[in-house]
Design brief:
globular; four-stranded antiparallel beta sheet; Neuraminidase; disordered N terminus
């Protein structure tokens, strides 16, 4: 709702006095809730952030699941909505926790451990408790999961589970080491990212038959990938982003033109963000958005980049001095400073930004 500015100074002065009195009264009668009350008044007066709390365990990772914040730590899974209400708390031990998400689904897994769990915002759907150590895991927006693990006698195994938790495919890699894998949106194609002595490799597998339908090989190591269409993936290396179809054919390339890759975030909608610099260290960085092998936008002169996150039509950059939100075209939309010790940022699909700290997060709007 649009707010009209009142003429004159007295009403604003009286209003501020009332706000101060309210804070003072709250401090006296509800000392334990003073921080929350100040935050509420700050929001009412046009402030930027609400705060949501969660357990302050170590090694936390964050993801958006159905519009909520998922926190995966050494003590399991927590999910809170953006009002701060906890919707899921599943406690179990992990040593090296990680999380991936897609739409309404998330997967929490223990790198080097044996447990992976697929969950929604309010419940755990199924678990993988195997005998082999997990390398990585992923989930698509149908709730199908893919888990990469070590396997004796092979260079890795990729297992696909349907949204009921039933195993529907085991794919063994004998030629190259499995790094990660992902599933198409219709759950019909699995793509495995591998590394061999000759370089990087993406292998496409038909989930129903288990047959290989395509393979892409290159001399450089591919470090990550995501499905960008119904049957094609976008893979990233230190020198570019490559669009590869299910036949293993390279269709599009966005090269970094000799710049150093200082950070990246691959979006599930096909819009990606990278941080590039002419130097391997230092503060002179440029954030670029890329889709379909073409540059969409650019934000130059960014210093001390710690993290970049993209979702929807916006991306955000965390630096040592604060957080900035940009449109996909590189236009600065908002800037936040003095946020304290932010550990991570997460751009949400609704345009809000999560600035995560030890045991609470600010919701920046």
């Amino acid at each position: 709702m649009e707010k009209r500015k009142r003429s004159g100074r007295k009403p604003k002065f009286v209003f501020l006095l009332l706000a101060a009195a309210l804070i003072a009264a709250t401090a006296f009668y509800f000392k334990d809730n003073i921080t929350s009350m100040i935050g509420s008044i700050t929001k009412f007066l046009g402030g930027a952030a609400d705060e949501i709390s969660y357990s302050g365990y170590a090694d936390k990772n964050y993801a958006e699941v159905d519009g909520c914040l998922a926190i995966v730590s050494v003590r399991g899974i927590q999910v809170v909505d953006l009002t701060g209400e906890q919707t899921l708390n599943d406690t179990f031990d992990m040593v090296s926790p990680a999380v991936k998400s897609n739409g309404e689904y998330g997967i929490a897994y223990d790198i080097g451990g044996k447990t992976a769990k697929v969950f929604t915002s309010d419940k755990v759907l199924y678990s993988r408790d195997g005998d082999t150590a997990i390398i990585s895991a992923n989930v698509n927006d149908e709730g199908y999961a893919v888990v990469c693990a070590r396997e004796e006698g092979y260079n890795g195994i990729v297992t696909v589970y349907n949204n009921a938790g039933q195993k529907i495919l085991d794919w063994y890699s004998g030629e190259a080491y499995v790094m990660s894998a992902c599933l198409s949106g219709n759950s019909e194609i699995m793509a495995a990212l591998c590394v061999a002595e000759s370089g990087g490799r993406v292998v496409f597998i038909d989930v129903a038959s288990g047959d290989e339908i395509g393979k892409y090989e290159c001399e450089e190591v591919l470090i990550d990938m995501v499905f960008s269409g119904s049957s094609s993936v976008d893979a990233i290396s230190q020198s570019g982003i490559y669009t590869i179809n299910e036949k293993g054919e390279l269709k599009k390339t966005y090269g970094f033109e000799g710049k150093y890759l200082r950070g990246y975030c691959l979006g599930t909608s096909g819009l990606h963000a990278v941080v590039l610099s002419s130097y391997s260290i230092g503060d002179d960085c440029t954030a670029i958005t890329v889709k379909n092998g073409k540059e969409v936008g650019m934000a130059e002169g960014i210093s001390s980049v710690m993290k970049i996150s993209i979702s929807g039509s916006k991306f955000a950059v965390l630096t040592t001095s604060g957080v900035k939100i940009y449109s996909k075209y590189g236009n600065e939309k908002k800037s936040f400073e003095d946020l304290g010790e932010v550990q991570d940022i997460l751009m949400m699909k609704n345009g809000h930004l999560i600035a995560a700290k030890v045991n609470y997060a600010s919701v920046l709007k």
